[in-house]
Design goal:
128 residues, alpha+beta, HIT family, subunit A, 5-stranded antiparallel sheet, globular
C-alpha cells in the first residue's frame, strides 16, 4: 500500500525473507536488536491473515529469536503485538515485535507486559 512504511521497506532493514513475511530491523528500536515480523500482505491485524500466513509469521518469529540469541545474547525476550489503536498500534500494517531483554535493562521487569496497561503491577506472584 502506498505510504505504508512496512509495504515500502528498504532492503537494508530486511534480515530474513519468507514467502508471506519478513523479519526486519525496527526503525525506532526500544532495545538494541529489536526486530519486527511483518506480513507481505497489507492487513491491519495478524488475525486478518490466512492460516498459512499466520503460521509462517510465527515460524519467522522463532527464527528472529534465534538470530537475536546468536547476535545479542539476551537473557529473555518480550514478544508481542499491538492490535488496534487502543492497544498502541501506530502503523496500520500488522506486525510482531521481538525485543531482546537483558538483566537490568529496566529497574523492575516483574510482571512483564502487565506493566504496560497499569503501573500498579498485579502482584499475583506474591500470593503463592
Amino acid at each position: 500500500m502506498q505510504g505504508c512504511p512496512f509495504c515500502e521497506l528498504p532492503e537494508e532493514r530486511i534480515r530474513i525473507e519468507g514467502e508471506h513475511g519478513l523479519v526486519v530491523r525496527d526503525g525506532f528500536p526500544v532495545a538494541a536488536g529489536h526486530l519486527l515480523i511483518v506480513p507481505r500482505r497489507h492487513v491491519e491485524s495478524v488475525f486478518h491473515l490466512s492460516q498459512p500466513e499466520q503460521d509462517e509469521l510465527w515460524e519467522l518469529t522463532a527464527r528472529a529469536r534465534g538470530l537475536l540469541i546468536r547476535d545479542a545474547r539476551p537473557e529473555g525476550f518480550t514478544i508481542g503485538i499491538n492490535d488496534g489503536l487502543a492497544a498502541g498500534q501506530t502503523v496500520p500494517h500488522a506486525h510482531i515485535h521481538v525485543i531482546p531483554r537483558h538483566i537490568g535493562d529496566v529497574p523492575d521487569p516483574t510482571g512483564g507486559i502487565r506493566a504496560i496497561v497499569s503501573p500498579r503491577k498485579a502482584r499475583y506472584w506474591e500470593h503463592s
